[in-house]
UniProtKB/TrEMBL annotation:
<dbReference type="InterPro" id="IPR032808">
    <property type="entry name" value="DoxX"/>
</dbReference>
<feature type="transmembrane region" description="Helical">
    <location>
        <begin position="21"/>
        <end position="49"/>
    </location>
</feature>
<feature type="transmembrane region" description="Helical">
    <location>
        <begin position="119"/>
        <end position="139"/>
    </location>
</feature>
<feature type="transmembrane region" description="Helical">
    <location>
        <begin position="55"/>
        <end position="73"/>
    </location>
</feature>
<dbReference type="Pfam" id="PF13564">
    <property type="entry name" value="DoxX_2"/>
</dbReference>
<protein>
    <submittedName>
        <fullName>DoxX family protein</fullName>
    </submittedName>
</protein>
<keyword id="KW-0472">Membrane</keyword>
<feature type="transmembrane region" description="Helical">
    <location>
        <begin position="80"/>
        <end position="99"/>
    </location>
</feature>
<keyword id="KW-1133">Transmembrane helix</keyword>
<keyword id="KW-0812">Transmembrane</keyword>
Length: 144
């Protein structure tokens, strides 16, 4: 399965490694929280999502597996792609939480929380792709 591993060396290996480990820790931790506190996340699920409890549990498993996959060289590329897609797929729940004025006791309800959270989601998409070795942007080396 050669599509799982990028053939040429990646630029910025130290930066990429630090970002990869940080993102892996974040996703694994969030995954554990999703599994341990799944009912608490039901309020932010849009009404059109079927089987919301199961979806929250599946997202927790996806976060843990994606985070672990970033740490396994053969799975790093595909994990980066899947975590980027995951960050896109959960965005509707973030929007619903922000604009639906959904009160979740453990999470802040102000725009000081929602604004940065919504704005940071594209960064999570980029971060997963960069840490997974899928993209080099904006740090690509250009020939002199």
């Amino acid at each position: 399965m050669t599509f799982l591993v990028r053939p040429e060396p990646l630029p910025h290996p130290r930066l990429r490694a630090v970002l990869r480990w940080a993102l892996a820790v974040i996703y694994i931790a969030f995954g554990v929280v999703h599994l341990r506190s799944a009912p608490g996340f039901l309020a932010i699920m849009p009404a059109w999502v079927p089987y919301p409890l199961e979806v929250v549990l599946i997202t927790g498993v996806c976060e843990i597996l994606g985070g672990l996959g970033l740490l396994i060289p053969r799975l790093r590329w595909i994990s980066g792609v899947m975590l980027a897609l995951y960050a896109i797929c959960v965005y509707p729940a973030n929007l619903h939480h922000a604009f639906g004025q959904v009160d979740v006791g453990s999470l802040p309800s102000s725009w000081w929380y929602h604004g940065p959270r919504l704005a940071f989601q594209p960064v999570f998409v980029w971060w997963a792709l960069f840490a997974g070795g899928v993209i080099d942007w904006p740090l690509r080396r250009t020939p002199a």
